[in-house]
TrEMBL record:
InterPro entries: CCB3/YggT. This is YggT family protein. It comes from Desulfoferula mesophila. Signal peptide: none annotated. The chain crosses the membrane at residues 7-31, 67-92. Keywords: Membrane, Transmembrane, Transmembrane helix.
Length: 99
């Protein structure tokens, strides 16, 4: 039970870190980034495959403003606060019932 709880905590941490990578990639698009910069290349290589899937499913360009990062961040927050937290409370609750 504790092992599964630690895995869920790690997944939640990874999702939180990825959310900040999305924020950094979105902020960097507001300026004119150098496409040869390794940090810019990393940010786009990590975020664009997922953002492309969001853009393919939902039209996200409104008046020149791309809301795909916002949608992805909201999805991550939903996963962390509803799904993962719910599973964690189930694990803790079932562990309390066993003892």
């Amino acid at each position: 039970m504790i092992f599964f709880l630690k895995i869920l905590q790690f997944i939640s941490w990874l999702l939180g870190a990825y959310m900040w990578v999305i924020v950094a990639a979105a902020v960097i698009t507001w300026v004119r980034p150098d496409p040869n910069n390794p940090i810019v290349r990393f940010l786009f290589a990590v975020t664009e495959p997922v953002l492309w899937r969001v853009r393919r499913i939902i039209p996200t360009n409104f008046g020149g403003f791309d809301i795909a990062p916002v949608i992805l961040i909201l999805a991550i927050i939903f996963l962390q606060n509803v799904i993962i937290s719910g599973l964690m409370s189930l694990i803790v609750g079932s562990a309390m019932n066993i003892q």
